[in-house]
Design brief:
- The protein is α+β, with helices and mostly antiparallel strands and 121 residues long.
- The chain is 13% helix and 32% strand.
- It is built from 2 helices and 6 strands; from the N terminus they run H-E-E-E-E-E-E-H.
- Strands 1, 2, 3, 4, 5 and 6 form a 6-stranded mixed β-sheet that branches.
- It is globular.
């Protein structure tokens, strides 16, 4: 998923590289179903150009994080993220926690776990 330059840059600069994107969310489980305390997923997403993005998702309790590695020459989306999502991008500042709205169990969680279906170019 990661090129050797990515963790080197993260260690050296203490920041995400230009092709990395981190999304954070507060997870709100359903009240009627038992859910696992933690979930780990890894996905490879194909783009129209034939390139691939890689996405690792980790949910622990109410905390969700996704790390996305974009294809070379592709940049993070510039549109405003939905209210349940905090995007950490290269050069970004600190974040306010928790987000204004939680990501809910069910269809909304599945939509979050597929982020991003397309990236900016």
């Amino acid at each position: 998923m990661l090129l050797p330059a990515d963790p080197e840059r993260l260690y050296r600069d203490r920041a995400l590289g230009p092709t990395m994107l981190m999304a954070l969310a507060h997870y709100q489980p359903t009240s009627y179903a038992r859910e696992p305390f933690s979930i780990q997923m890894f996905e490879r997403m194909e783009h129209d150009t034939g390139q691939y993005s890689y996405c690792a998702t980790l949910k622990i309790g109410h905390f969700v994080a996704q790390l996305v590695r974009l294809p070379d020459g592709t940049y993070p989306p510039t549109r405003q993220p939905p209210p349940h999502l905090i995007l950490l991008q290269p050069g970004g500042s600190s974040v306010r926690w928790p987000p204004p709205a939680p990501v809910h169990a069910g269809a909304e969680w599945k939509a979050f776990a597929q982020l991003p279906p397309r990236t900016g170019t």
